[in-house]
Amino acid sequence: MGLNSLNLSFWFLVCFFRFASASSTYVSCNHFFPFSFPMYFMKLLGVTSFRLQTCDEDFTKKNYTIITSSCKGPEYPKNNCCRALKDFACPFSEKVNDLTNDCARTMFSYINLYGKYPPGLFAHLCHEGQKGLACDADPPASLATPLSTPPAFLFLTSASLTIFSLFL
């Protein structure tokens, strides 16, 4: 029984690191909400000394007119606001989606400061799928690397192997 649980743990870690290392071309929906997912659960677990790393992107000097010129109240048109948010945030999607730093919080603080937007405006207006806002330009695949295997296939393969190993 101990060998089976060890095997299960191994495949869980393989899946976890595979999905964690996948490149992101989305602006995650997790950052639209007032609390950060890991920080919320760290507080539930009683960990109080956990600190996010300071963002290495300087959001103080960014040009926010991309958003403020397109997303204007009192109507806040969904298409204009979401397109402007994507145009602004997609170049920083990797940093904004990193849950170990405070880039998302910093970016949205400045967006709300310069645009004087109501709380939760972008969370309410802009959602395209489970992962968040899709950035249009995917990074081109390198010719030196082979075609990557889709994560869903890897997950199904590892799950099948794990289940199979439980019956051995």
From TrEMBL:
InterPro entries: LLG1-like, LORELEI-like. Residues 58-133 form the GPI-anchored protein LLG1-like domain. Coiled coil: none annotated. Residues 1-22 form the signal peptide. The keyword Signal applies. Pfam families: LLG1. Keywords: Signal. It comes from the Eukaryota. This is GPI-anchored protein LLG1-like domain-containing protein. It comes from Gossypium anomalum.
